[in-house]
Amino acid sequence: MTVLGTVLKGAYYDSVTLMIVSKQINELEGVADSAVVMGSSENKDILEAAGLMTPALSSSAGTDLLISVKARSEELARQAIGQAETLLGS
Amino acid sequence: MEQTDDHKHVIVLGDNLPEGCFRIHSRFRDVVNFVNARNDIAFMTTDPDKMAANGICINGAALTDIDALCIDHGFITACNNKNDRNSSSPMAPPMPLNAAGYQKIDRNRAAIFNSTLCYHQTMAAGFKKTIVEIPDKYAALFPSGSMLFVLMPGKAAGCKGGFDTHFANRVCEAADCLVRGHFARATGLLKSSGRGLSPAGDDFIAGLLLGLHYNAFLSGKNLQGLADNIYKEALGTNLLVNAFLLQAKENRCVALFKNFVFSLSQNKQVPAGLKKLLAMGATSGADLLSGYIFSVKHNLGI
What we know:
The complex is a heterodimer. Chain A is an alpha+beta fold. Chain A is 44% helix and 24% strand. Chain A has helices at residues 15-26, 41-49, 55-58, 74-88; strands spanning 2-8, 31-38, 65-71. In chain A, strands 1-3-2 form a 3-stranded antiparallel sheet. By secondary structure, chain B is α+β, with helices and mostly antiparallel strands. Chain B has 2 domains: 6-113, no CATH class; 121-297, no CATH class. Helices cover 39% and strands 14% of the residues of chain B. Chain B is built from 10 helices and 9 strands. Chain B has helices at 125-132, 134-138, 162-180, 183-190, 200-219, 224-234, 239-249, 255-266, 270-278, 284-297, and strands at 11-14, 20-27, 31-35, 41-45, 55-58, 68-71, 75-79, 102-106, 111-113. In chain B, strands 8-7-6-2-3-4-5-1-9 form a 9-stranded mixed sheet, covered by helices on one side. In chain B, α3 packs antiparallel against α4 (183-190), α5 (200-219) runs parallel beside α7 (239-249) and α8 runs antiparallel to α9. The longest helix of chain B has 20 residues, at 200-219. The A-B interface holds A 12-16, 18-19, 22, 26, 33-38, 40-43, 45-47, 49-52, 61-63, 68, 70 and B 25-26, 28-29, 145, 160-163, 165-167, 170, 189, 191-199, 201, 236-238, 281-284.
């Protein structure tokens, strides 16, 4: 399994959008787990405990949006993150 | 600049609007949030159900055209800094900004939204039972992934992902701390954690704070000190969250929640009111209500 993460700086999305994106990413082929959450230190603790933390996410701020994907391969994880960014319109 | 005083549209102002000059913080479909130099949040909406102490509701306003706000004790001025609008603009607003690009509202002529959650003597012990019974009666209405599982432990089994499982474990630990009276530890576990723009843990804390006010009403105890301490512990870097926690600490809440509590007290249209509340955000309404019920059910602070 590979875990990849990306940070959307200072990005605010309503919670319904975040929920839909999370659900769709989790349903993608080869994705074992994912999280689309605000970058608070508390959420980073949870990501760490869930095995979803990456170096890219660790330096984020509380007002950033974090996307983390655990997938069968790096390519699938990268595709899932790209899909999440597309769904968020960023 | 020419001033206008357009009251063709229904304007309702929150009863605890911060003052100052505000720039855009975040913009959503029917809510625009503004922030001033002191990091206070004020918002504009077209939806009366979303009204709160720091809100301005203008029926029919074109929120896409408003870029800044100035609020003082007499007037509210909504500004459009673009100055590039013309008659063919697809964003031509029903509430037009004038030629100078701004709209002025006389606060003395606007209706005021009372955001305080009021209790009266008929809402004593019997009403508490009604609140506590909500999960058993209406569990099916709660959205999946909400914090209902804190009230109905069996629901935690529905967690699928690693993030959700670890979040649920953290919340359950917080719930245990709350019941034991370890409020600071519980707040630390809940704050800023979970999914959503307003993370689920923060929505739950806001519900806890609102529930404390009901517990104070019921017991006659002054729980404001406890509410203040929880609020201070819960403050984080998310200004939207900080704003609604402040309101909850002061027993102020969003219109949807207030309307639901009223319908519950009257035992009228409860499912309809609950459905509207639970449709707030992805799980925000459900998480807020779960915190409120938890606070009341476990007699927090009393």
